[in-house]
Design a protein that fits this description.
Number of domains: 2
Helix content: 25-40%
Largest sheet: 5 strands, parallel
Strand content: 5-15%
Strand order of the largest sheet: 5-4-3-6-7
Distance between the termini: 100 Å
Shape: elongated
Number of strands: 13
Radius of gyration: 25 Å
Order of helices and strands: HEEEHEHEHEHEHHEEHEEHEHHHEHHH
CATH architecture of the largest domain: 3-Layer(aba) Sandwich
Length: about 375
């Protein structure tokens, strides 16, 4: 009997060792990330972090925000304005631990110090911030690189990243739904407007680019204009030019073109009283001489360049702009309802009213200069 007792500690030790081995040695699978790297990841993923602009947004589109165990410091900063639907729909993000700085400046020590370690690190804008290969070596946690893309010339990059996320999270059907959703909206907007002959000229000013700007700040490739085939006075056919996504259009050119309708990206309100696009339109003699200002044909639109592109807001703006430019083609559309439908599909909550309240109730409204 006494001899059998001596075996008990050894049996217990072997049991614990085997349990630990099987807990750590999870079955692995391979995926190919956006940089064509073969990445080994656990078969089942239930703990992740998202590094880089827009990364957490894409994960939220998959309804996978419950898997996020930590955030970068962008999610915990207090601010007067915020035009990120995914964040407004998920206030719990600001209570999560911080693993590093925004724009991809990760901190490997903070990541390894998390009480709950992620099984996978998703990372957008791989050349920004901490090198993803080095991050993987330092943490021994697989890093999956994503190309953020956009809804215009880089749509395939976005859709490829959605496909990669779907593979990693085993949510392939949701990836297909998202691709179909974006394509359907763009296709319908085009169908409603592609055969318009007598188009009004337009311009959008005050667009954010790594911070708020005045009214001259615009986007020659402004997607909402492109989706509704608008006659943008700042448009360019150069799809590869460095100013494709952002440029400062001179006041003289705006005055010379004298567009029929103006749109104001309300991110410019961040510049405060006495500054920004709204103040300029009201007080600058050049802008005050524009026909659109004199006739109150200036309209507020949602910012979408906010920690990179908010794709839902791009679509919501396009529906509203379509209604302003071609009222007879969009008379069945309620822009606010359309925006909430878009946000409900992408981030699971109708957050339009929350954003509108932050921007003084000026979203999708005519701006009065009298």
């Amino acid at each position: 009997m006494m001899k059998n007792i001596y075996w008990i500690p050894l049996i217990v030790f072997m049991f614990l060792a085997l349990s630990a081995f099987f807990a750590v040695a999870q079955p692995l699978r391979q995926i190919t990330d956006a940089n064509l790297r073969i990445v080994n990841i656990p078969k089942k993923i239930d703990r992740i972090i998202c590094s880089g602009p827009g990364c957490l947004r894409l994960i939220t589109y998959f309804g996978a925000q419950n898997l996020v165990v930590a955030v970068d410091d962008m999610e915990t900063k207090k601010r007067k304005f915020d035009a990120r639907p995914y964040f407004l729909a998920n206030p719990q993000f600001k209570k999560l631990p911080v693993f590093g700085g925004f724009r991809g400046y990760d901190d490997p020590e903070k990541i390894l110090g998390l009480k709950i370690l992620p099984q996978v690190i998703f990372k957008t804008y791989a050349t920004m911030g901490y090198n993803p290969v080095e991050l993987e070596k330092k943490t021994e946690i697989p890093v999956v690189i994503l190309e953020y893309g956009d809804l215009s010339k880089n749509r395939k990059k976005l859709f490829n990243s959605l496909d990669i996320i779907g593979q990693v999270l085993q949510k392939e059907s949701r990836a297909k739904e998202l691709v179909q959703f974006f394509n359907q909206h763009i296709h319908e907007l085009d169908n409603r407007t592609k055969d318009v002959d007598d188009k009004k000229t337009c311009f959008v000013g005050g667009i954010a680019f790594k911070g708020p700007h005045g009214f001259q700040s615009t986007e020659p490739s402004y997607p909402p204009f492109r989706f509704v085939n608008a006659k943008n006075i700042a448009s360019t056919n150069d799809m590869t030019g460095k100013n494709f996504h952002h440029s400062n259009f001179s006041k003289e050119k705006i005055l010379q073109a004298n567009p029929d309708i103006l749109f104001l990206d309300l991110s410019t309100l961040q510049m405060g009283e006495g500054h920004g696009g709204l103040h300029e339109l009201k007080n600058d003699p050049v802008y005050k001489g524009l026909t659109a200002v004199e006739t109150n044909k200036v309209y507020g639109v949602l910012p979408y360049n906010w920690y990179t592109r908010n794709f839902g807001s791009v679509l919501a703006d396009a529906w509203y702009i379509g209604q302003i430019l071609y009222p007879d083609r969009f008379n069945d559309i309620n822009p606010e309802k359309k925006a909430n439908d878009i946000y409900e599909f992408l981030v699971s909550k109708p957050v339009f009213n929350s954003m509108n309240s932050l921007f003084r109730g000026m979203v999708f409204q005519q701006i009065d200069f009298n």
